[in-house]
Design goal:
It is a single chain. It is built from 12 helices and no strands.
Length: about 260
Amino acid sequence: MRKSTQARSQTQAQAQPQARDGRPARRGPGRPRRAEREGPPTRELILREATELFAARGPEGTSLRDIAGRVGIDVSSLHHHFPSKDALYDACFERVHEAERAALAPLVAELGRAAPLGGAPLAAALRALAEGFVDFLEEHPHTTFLWLRRWLDPVRGTGLDEAYALPLYGEVERVLLEAAHAGTVREATPHVTVRSLVWAAHGHVTALAAAPPAGRERERYEFRVWVRRFLEALYGAPPAAGAAGSGAPAEGGVIIQQPLD
C-alpha cells in the first residue's frame, strides 16, 4: 500500500511541470485561461444561434428547444437568460440594430455635417452612407433575412420596426429634409427615398445569396453602379440641355454640382 501511494506521488510530480527550484511551474503565457477556452458567454451564443434560426425559419418555425440544442444547453438554461421566445426574438433584433447603428452612425453624422454645404461634400457623404449600408448587409446577411421574415406579416411586429429600424432611417430622412430647407437639394419624398434604398439593398443581399459564385462579383458591382446612378438622378447636378443619355429632366435640377462618378 505504501509503495503504491509513493508511486502515485512520484508519477504526479513527474507529470507536473517543475521550475528550477523544484516548485511547480506557473502557467505559460501561451496557455489560455479557462474563460478564454470556454469561448463567448452563453447569452451571446444563444443570441447568435437564435438569430440564424429566426432568419432561416422565422419565429413560428423555430422552437426554444431548437435553439438550445444548437447552443448545447437545455431549455431551462435558456430560460435563465430569456424568459420567453418573444423576449429572445426581440433581443435578436436589438443585437442586429446595435451592430447596424455602430456601423452607420458615423456616416449619418457626416451626412448631417455635409447637408448644409451641398455640392461635392454632400454627394460624397450620400454615397458613403449608401455604400456603407450595403457593405454592412453583405457582411451580416442574417440581418436581411431576419427583417424579411418579419416583413412577411405587415401588421405583426410593427413594434420591432419602431424600435430598431425607423429611428436610424428617420435620422437620414430628417437630414434630407434639412438639406431641402437649406436649398442644397430638392427632396419632397425623403421617407420613400430612404425606404426604397433600404429595400433595394435587402433585395441585393437576397440576390447575392441565390447567385452562383461566378455571378456574385457581377451582382456586387452592378448594384453599386445602380446606387450611384440612383443618387445622381435624385441629387446630382442637372445635365446640360440636350445632353445625350440623360435620364433626368433639367427642370428637376438640384444644387449638388458634382455627379457621383
